[in-house]
Structure to design on (1163 residues):
């Protein structure tokens, strides 16, 4: 049996990974909930955030500016994507939406590969993130703690936006019935664009804040895309609370399993999803019958 | 000039042709009943007016302006409001949020207090989520959403469907009050007697074609028309 | 004429296409080197084409978009490669077959979970499962799979028997070996698509709820299609190892699934050859253009852009576009199949083709056939299970709550065999919910339903349909991409074959009684002149009749009709009322209808619902004069 300190540190690790997954999945799930489009280019937008941040860092040398650069980069790509292609897909079958966003993801990834090459780009840990903090018996790299804080703040901001603002009220109503919102005099297409932009920006934010601890490559988003699918399947597709809880659950599964057997840590995540599907196909927070 | 002039609109649902060269006029301060059998095209007519269904051709002139083909939100901002058959209350929002959402894009929106004067029941239930309302309360809220927007032309699609007679009476009272205040109303209803009791003019649609126009009194005098097209 | 039509849609002479495929495959080694395509590329294209045959059955024909086919490609590949490199098995063919079976077994397991959901969920979950397989391959199973190194040293096949054998070597002989697999794979897939089994797959792609309601076990069909696709993937994966003498770990990776999806879309889904064409473009062009510096680097980008454009503007893909072009230019064999003749019949009102202009009342009555023709073939009726004591359908205390809302409460009634029962009630009275519970589409909160005395509560719509009770819907639920005749074949197949059968290699002509039953139904609902027309081209009244025909074709002895007259003109109504009278013989009919006149004319006995409860029952006379009923319909409002 692993020792208690190891267990606790893995629990903490799981929370860190989990919150990150929650954030990425939240972006995916609010886009799906509002627009009805499952965005398979979400992983590519995550990667765009990392590259845009990397460029901003190259130019300015400031990691804070890099964070904004990453957000703005993925926001712009997201907005263009919605205006140029995705908006013509709102009336098309879900399969077509999946296929086209999958295609867009490939185009974005390949464009980045052509421009930057396939070799990973170094994003150093900012100076204020160096070093290690001792938390009781737990030693933890400073940047990881700061990253957790960033992610938690972003999640909180997203929560406040959704539940405490007029825009959030419109978005929640739009998730339920976008035609009725439209008929009440609200330009839902502008809301769709905005939501797509916010979703893309969350992915980009996650991309840049994780880039110091990841290899920044054109394919870096793929693994997060797949994991966020698992998260929203566990949490219930289209549910914001589902994405948060699902993300934390997923993070803990990976982290705690790797304590016993690192080889099975990823496998266990999918196994839990399979079991949940058998028991509760609509996910933890999903509404039955919503396809 | 009528408030609303519909000229030869043709609407489709998928690939089935639902409205055929439909023309009608609605005058300001008028209550018009739109009757016909199930599937005759009444709801599609209202949806076409609201922009939720786009007529393939034809003209819809509202206050002199062609609104045919405009998106629903622009039509709503011009003062037309559909109260849909399914009511379409936002279940995850509470009563007050449903009303606030409706008021958002309307500069002349009413205050909540004024709405609650019309519907005291909604004041009692203002913190209840849409999903927890009874059918009658949902219908009240659906109408209230049109009122808070100070809609000039209200399109009521089967407002009495599935409601107990006593609630129907209650809603009829509200409808009469709105008519007395000079609001223009188009009402689609299976409950022919209820609709005729508040309407000044009647149109009957059959299979997507306009087949009758007259007053309730004239219609009552022609039982064979009632019989053929309405089955009563 | 009927024979010709049926054989036309059942593929007529399937071996023609198969023979052409054989000839093309034989010509490739001669022609392709001339245009600079190597045996290696040609073999690779065939492997992806074979992989795609299974995927097309799953996606193009059954409508299930899987993003996880790499799981089975990898499973088949690694199992075959493992057997050939790490065990005593040296027979390549044997190893490939075992690989295929293991991939199919994996398909059963994965399908069990993924098919619990459809649409976007299915796409996401299949992708997730494939990733799980990828991780399994990379790490926990690396002792068998070689982990990130893959498995090297996969041998070349030897064909023949003990005394005579032939060592296949790389190049065009290996191409021949792989081409043989592709040919067999194509023939099997082609036959599956044309079989009764394949017809059911397309039906559930078009309209899953209706396929369920006509009595097909949708889950079993979907799972079988999924397992077939896994089998194709498994063989293709195995052949990849053989071709390369090496089984690469990235065969299990996401981009393998993605490449398959893209190739299928580019080539055209639902054509069987689409994935092959897509692969030829992908791999062939890549090989062809690889010397041009920028193009080689940007090849994936170019493909991605092409893919996005195709999805947006040419969803049917290259082969789909070709097929459409051919169908437009090819003169139809049956004269009534052309749009022109459809237009003519619409204008001249032949045989009850609905009249869209009720004002034209000058059409002679004999155009609307109301009598029963003497030559009419008999429509099947399933024999009823006994023990019923003359009661066809009964329900006891039937109740349905949705959250706090009572849609139906405590409804008890019983309907004798052979009766035509009317169910009426104002809008919102709960008639639809009541009907859905009877048909098995909605599970009651409380109470029981008995069909011929047997408790059918909670059995589900498929079982209920198989037991002999079917329903026609208020809003048409047709198979939108099929013709009238193909539509009617779906319920008939459920009746003749049961809820599930794997007759994948049979042709439709081999289903005894299919033709007669379709013909009888067409005749009964007056659509025999429209048999070849895609349903999207039907007029509304014709669609309504086909809707009733779908319920009739499954040979029910109890028939539920939900507002059969909805939206019809007076003339069509009269026509449909006659139709209902004609189909009464031998059947129990339960009709929900708004049209009170039709109801009073037709029904022997009427039950009235109001606010979810049974308000009154009686003969039409009694109901007409019932004060409570009048009040219910008028909503308590006295007429002015």
């Amino acid at each position: 049996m692993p020792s208690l300190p190891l267990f606790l540190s893995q629990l903490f690790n799981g929370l860190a990974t989990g919150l990150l997954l929650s954030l990425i999945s939240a972006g995916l799930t609010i886009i799906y909930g509002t627009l009805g489009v499952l965005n398979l280019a979400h992983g590519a937008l995550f990667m765009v955030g990392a590259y845009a941040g990397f460029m901003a860092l190259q130019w300015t040398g400031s990691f804070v500016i890099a964070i904004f650069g990453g957000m703005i980069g993925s926001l712009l790509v997201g907005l263009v994507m919605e205006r140029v292609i995705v908006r013509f897909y709102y009336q098309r079958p879900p399969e077509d939406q999946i296929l086209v966003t999958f295609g867009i993801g490939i185009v974005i990834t390949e464009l980045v590969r052509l421009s930057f090459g396939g070799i990973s780009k170094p994003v150093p840990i900012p100076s204020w993130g160096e070093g290690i903090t001792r938390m009781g018996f737990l030693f933890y790299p400073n940047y990881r703690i700061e990253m957790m804080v960033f992610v938690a703040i972003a999640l909180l901001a997203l929560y406040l936006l959704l539940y405490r603002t007029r825009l959030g009220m419109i978005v929640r109503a739009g998730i339920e019935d976008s035609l009725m919102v439209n008929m009440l005099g609200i330009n839902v297409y502008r809301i769709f664009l905005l939501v797509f932009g916010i979703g893309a920006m969350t992915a980009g934010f996650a991309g840049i804040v994780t880039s110091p601890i990841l290899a920044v490559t054109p394919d870096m988003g793929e693994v997060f895309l797949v994991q966020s699918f698992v998260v929203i399947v566990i949490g219930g597709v289209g549910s914001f609370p589902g994405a948060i809880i699902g993300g934390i659950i997923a993070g803990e599964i990976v982290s705690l399993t790797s304590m016993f057997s690192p080889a099975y840590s990823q496998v266990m995540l999918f196994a839990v999803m399979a079991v949940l599907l058998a028991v509760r196909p609509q996910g933890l927070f999903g509404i039955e019958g919503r396809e | 000039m009528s408030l609303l002039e519909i000229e030869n609109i043709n609407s489709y649902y998928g690939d089935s042709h639902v409205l055929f060269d439909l023309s009608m006029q609605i005058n300001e301060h008028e209550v018009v009943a739109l009757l016909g059998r199930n599937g005759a095209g009444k709801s599609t007519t209202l949806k076409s007016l609201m922009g939720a269904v786009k007529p393939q051709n034809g003209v819809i002139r509202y206050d002199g302006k062609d609104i045919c083909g405009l998106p629903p939100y622009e039509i709503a901002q011009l003062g037309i409001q559909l109260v849909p058959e399914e009511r379409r209350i936002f279940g995850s929002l509470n009563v007050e949020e449903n009303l606030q959402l409706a008021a958002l894009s309307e500069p002349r929106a009413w205050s909540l207090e004024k709405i609650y004067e019309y519907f005291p029941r909604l004041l009692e239930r203002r913190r209840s989520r849409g999903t927890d309302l009874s059918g009658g309360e949902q219908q009240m809220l659906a109408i209230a959403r049109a009122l808070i927007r100070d809609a000039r032309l209200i399109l009521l699609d089967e407002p009495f469907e599935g409601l107990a007679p006593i609630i129907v009476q209650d809603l009829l009272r509200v409808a009469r009050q709105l008519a007395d205040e000079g609001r223009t109303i188009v009402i689609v209803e299976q409950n022919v007697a209820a609709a005729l009791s508040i309407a000044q003019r009647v149109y009957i649609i059959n299979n997507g074609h306009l087949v009758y126009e007259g007053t309730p009194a004239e219609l009552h005098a022609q039982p064979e028309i009632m019989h053929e097209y309405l089955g009563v | 004429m009927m024979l010709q039509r049926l054989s036309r849609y059942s593929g007529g002479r399937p071996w023609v296409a198969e023979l052409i495929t054989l000839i093309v495959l034989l010509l490739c080694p001669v022609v392709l080197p001339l245009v600079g395509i190597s045996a290696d590329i040609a073999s690779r294209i065939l492997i992806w084409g074979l992989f795609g045959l299974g995927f097309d059955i799953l996606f193009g024909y059954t409508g299930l978009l899987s993003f996880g086919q790499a799981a089975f490609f990898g499973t088949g590949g690694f199992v075959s490669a493992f057997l050939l490199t790490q065990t005593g098995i040296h027979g390549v063919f044997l190893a490939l077959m075992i690989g295929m079976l293991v991939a199919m077994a994996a398909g059963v397991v994965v399908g069990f979970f993924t098919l619990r959901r459809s649409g976007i969920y299915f796409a996401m979950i299949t992708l997730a499962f494939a990733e799980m397989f990828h991780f399994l391959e990379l790490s926990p199973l690396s002792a068998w799979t070689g982990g990130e190194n893959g498995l090297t040293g996969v041998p070349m096949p030897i064909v023949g028997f003990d005394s005579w054998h032939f060592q296949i070597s790389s190049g065009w002989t290996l191409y021949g070996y792989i081409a043989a697999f592709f040919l067999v794979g194509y023939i099997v897939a082609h036959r599956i698509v044309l079989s009764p089994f394949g017809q059911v797959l397309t039906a559930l792609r078009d309209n899953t709820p209706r396929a369920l309601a006509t009595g097909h076990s949708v889950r079993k069909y979907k799972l079988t299609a999924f397992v077939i696709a896994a089998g194709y993937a498994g063989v293709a994966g195995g052949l990849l190892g053989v071709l390369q003498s090496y089984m690469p770990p990235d065969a299990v990776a996401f981009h393998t699934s993605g490449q398959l999806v893209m190739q299928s879309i580019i080539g055209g889904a639902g054509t069987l050859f689409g994935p092959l064409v897509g692969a030829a473009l992908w791999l062939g062009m890549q090989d062809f253009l690889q010397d041009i510096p920028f193009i080689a680097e940007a090849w994936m980008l170019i493909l991605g852009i092409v893919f996005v454009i195709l999805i947006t503007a040419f969803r049917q893909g290259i082969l789909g576009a070709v097929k459409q072009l051919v169908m437009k230019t090819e003169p139809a064999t049956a004269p009534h199949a052309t749009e022109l003749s459809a237009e003519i019949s619409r204008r001249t009102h032949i045989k009850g083709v609905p009249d869209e202009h009720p004002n034209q009342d000058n059409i002679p009555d004999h155009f609307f056939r109301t009598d029963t023709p003497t030559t009419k073939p008999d429509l099947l009726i399933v024999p009823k299970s006994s023990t019923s004591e003359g009661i066809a359908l009964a329900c006891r205390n039937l109740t349905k709550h949705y959250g706090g809302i009572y849609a139906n409460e405590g409804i008890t009634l019983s309907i004798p065999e052979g009766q035509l029962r009317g169910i009426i009630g104002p809008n919102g009275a709960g008639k639809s919910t009541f009907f859905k519970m009877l048909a098995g589409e909605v599970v009651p909160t409380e109470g029981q339903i008995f069909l011929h005395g047997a408790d059918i509560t909670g059995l589900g719509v498929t079982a209920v349909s198989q037991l002999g009770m079917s329903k026609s819907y208020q809003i048409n639920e047709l198979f939108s991409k099929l013709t009238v005749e193909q539509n009617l074949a779906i319920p008939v197949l459920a009746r003749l074959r049961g809820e599930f059968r794997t007759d994948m290699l049979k042709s439709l002509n081999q289903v005894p009684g299919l033709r007669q039953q379709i013909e009888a139904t067409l005749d009964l609902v007056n659509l025999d002149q429209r048999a070849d027309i895609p349903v999207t081209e039907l007029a509304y009244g014709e669609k309504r009749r086909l809707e009733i025909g779908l319920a009739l074709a499954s040979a029910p002895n109890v028939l539920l009709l939900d507002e059969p007259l909805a939206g019809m003109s007076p003339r069509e109504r009269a026509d449909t009322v006659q139709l209902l009278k004609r189909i009464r013989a031998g059947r129990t009919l339960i009709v929900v209808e708004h049209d009170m006149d039709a109801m009073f004319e037709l029904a022997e006995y009427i039950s009235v619902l109001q606010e979810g409860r049974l308000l009154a029952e009686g003969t039409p006379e009694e109901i007409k004069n019932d004060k409570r009923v009048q009040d219910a319909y008028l909503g308590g409002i006295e007429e002015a």
Remarks:
- Chain B touches chain C at residues 15-17, 20, 37-40, 131-132, 134-135, 158, 160-166, 168-169, 172, 190-191, 193-194, 196-197, 206-207, 209, 211, 216, 220, 227-228, 231-232 (CB under 8 Å).
- Residues 165-180 of chain B form the longest helix (16 residues).
